[in-house]
């Protein structure tokens, strides 16, 4: 095979391995409290991977066309917990029946909730709203897409330091200090494949620790985070299973569940907008124009609809870690992402093989997140170069939106851990889930604060300070010649869907 083909396939496999972390974490946390067993958990993981592959292909071909991976989202966790805690579902005594009924309720909420993204995207309303964005407003939002995920970084590394810290140091060493060393031809192996190389080395090392009995008689938490044979994933996985729509039964619909789920849809839309802006900079593309942003959000809504039909348990969003990988490897290739979608679909049907890769200990992924989320955060802050940071107005807006974007969600999360419900706890459960979801999302809080202040404080005389002269030409599809190169639809589809 041509070396370029081998490199592309290997890069695609690296993207697949990286997105496994979130795909395993969400079902592992939620399926047991729904009443599901290990078999249900692996089936949900397979379904989530399968639909993520389809959604990634749709986004890369017809959505924003940016090299982004679409995967499961944590933005939906609070609405899902609200549905799980519904008294009518909790009354079901038999655990597996409760799992099935809860899954169907979540499916119904996702199917109807997806209409919010579909309407806001395809009607161009989200594109019109993006006219209120500026480099100053986007800097904290994109920055918080990375910074807001800090809890999935070192706190998880600390759950198994003997695996997590070597992983963190190895990735930094290979990708930064040894990136110019080329042991094979002219391919910068350490710069292109740091994730694959480091995961392979540390995973093997953790296998040795597990097999050597290092975790015998250790606390449950240590065994769960450090062992490579945890969670019964490989044993419970079938050899072959093809996910299909309505595999859990007919979805059930409830107005309260749907309103609660719409908060997750809204939050994932804002987080994805920030991730698209970051991906465009890391892929050395122009910022996506309003029309392209709307198109991407519309297709993401189709993705959430598919999540509901197949029963992935959670909705979709752009994978922040895979956006960070664009910066680490300096490869912004659409082809790589499309092939990685093929890996997701292929390994999701081959249960045992998929479960083998899914059994990588979480602290290995967390060490990667420390670097990749940090990269995305720094891309957000790089938007400030187009603004005047000697302006006290700009300093005030940036500082306040960054601080409140971290501080308010932290308050909501700590309240949740202490009281097992959010600070908003009225008699209307769906209303509680809606507000608790909105204010638990750092990019959403950052967007509310930054965009409101940026569009109400001394707007007219601050256009240059906000970076608008640089930004305004990227608002429309025809505003920059390069937009056509990056965002034109394939198969000559622009004839039927002309950019507006």
TrEMBL record:
Q: How does it sit in the membrane?
A: Multi-pass membrane protein
State the compartments where it is located: Membrane
Assigned keywords, A-Z:
Membrane, Transmembrane, Transmembrane helix
- Report one GO cellular component: membrane
Tell me the InterPro entries matching this sequence.
NCS2
Membrane-crossing ranges are 12-32, 44-62, 68-85, 105-126, 132-150, 157-178, 193-215, 336-358, 364-383, 395-413, 433-453
Give any Pfam family that matches: Xan_ur_permease
Q: Name one GO molecular function term.
A: transmembrane transporter activity
Q: Does the keyword Transmembrane helix apply?
A: yes
Q: Extract the PANTHER family matched here.
A: XANTHINE-URACIL / VITAMIN C PERMEASE FAMILY MEMBER
Q: Which family does it belong to?
A: Belongs to the nucleobase:cation symporter-2 (NCS2) (TC 2.A.40) family.
NCBIfam families on file = NCS2_1
The protein in question is named Xanthine/uracil/vitamin C permease
Q: What is the lineage of its organism?
A: Eukaryota, Viridiplantae, Streptophyta, Embryophyta, Tracheophyta
């Amino acid at each position: 095979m041509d070396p370029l083909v081998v490199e592309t396939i290997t890069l695609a496999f690296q993207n697949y391995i990286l997105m496994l972390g979130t795909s395993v974490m969400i079902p592992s946390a939620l399926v047991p409290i729904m009443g599901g067993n290990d078999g249900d958990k692996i089936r949900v993981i397979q379904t989530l991977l399968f639909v993520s592959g389809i959604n990634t292909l749709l986004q890369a071909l017809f959505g924003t066309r940016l090299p982004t991976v679409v995967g499961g989202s944590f933005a939906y966790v609070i609405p899902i917990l609200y549905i799980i805690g519904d008294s009518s579902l909790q009354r079901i005594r038999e655990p597996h029946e409760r799992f099935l009924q809860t899954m169907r309720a979540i499916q119904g909420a996702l199917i109807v909730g997806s209409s919010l993204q579909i309407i806001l995207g395809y009607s161009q309303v989200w594109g019109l709203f993006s006219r209120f964005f500026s480099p100053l407003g986007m800097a904290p939002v994109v920055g918080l897409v990375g910074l807001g995920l800090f809890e999935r970084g070192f706190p998880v590394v600390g759950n198994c330091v003997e695996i997590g810290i070597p992983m963190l140091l190895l990735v930094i060493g290979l990708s930064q200090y040894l990136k110019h060393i080329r042991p094979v031809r002219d391919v910068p192996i350490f710069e292109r494949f740091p994730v694959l190389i480091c995961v392979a080395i540390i995973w093997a090392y953790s296998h040795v620790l597990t097999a050597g009995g290092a975790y015998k008689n250790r606390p449950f938490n240590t065994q769960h985070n450090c062992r490579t044979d945890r969670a019964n994933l490989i044993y419970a996985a079938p050899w072959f299973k093809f996910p299909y729509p309505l595999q859990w039964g007919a979805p059930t619909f409830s107005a309260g569940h749907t309103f609660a789920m719409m908060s997750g849809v809204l939050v994932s839309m804002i987080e994805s907008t920030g991730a698209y802006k970051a991906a465009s900079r890391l892929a050395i593309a122009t910022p996506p124009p309003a029309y392209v942003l709307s198109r991407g959000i519309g297709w993401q809504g189709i993705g959430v609809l598919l999540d509901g039909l197949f029963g992935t348990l959670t909705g979709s969003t752009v994978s922040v870690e895979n956006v960070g990988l664009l910066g680490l490897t300096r490869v912004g290739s659409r082809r790589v992402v499309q092939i990685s979608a093929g890996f997701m679909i292929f390994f999701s049907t081959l249960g045992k093989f998929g479960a083998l890769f899914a059994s990588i200990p979480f602290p290995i992924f967390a060490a990667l997140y420390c670097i990749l989320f940090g990269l995305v955060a720094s891309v957000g802050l790089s938007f400030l170069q187009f603004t005047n940071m000697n302006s006290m107005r700009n300093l005030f807006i940036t500082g306040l939106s960054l601080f409140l974007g971290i501080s308010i969600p932290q308050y909501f999360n700590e309240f949740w851990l202490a009281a097992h419900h959010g600070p908003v706890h009225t008699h209307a459960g769906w209303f509680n889930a809606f507000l608790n979801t909105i204010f638990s999302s750092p990019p959403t809080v950052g967007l509310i604060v930054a965009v409101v202040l940026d569009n109400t404080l001394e707007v007219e005389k601050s256009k240059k300070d906000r970076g608008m002269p640089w930004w305004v030409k990227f608002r429309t599809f025809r505003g920059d010649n390069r937009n056509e190169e990056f965002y034109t639809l394939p198969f000559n589809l622009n004839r039927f869907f002309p950019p507006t």
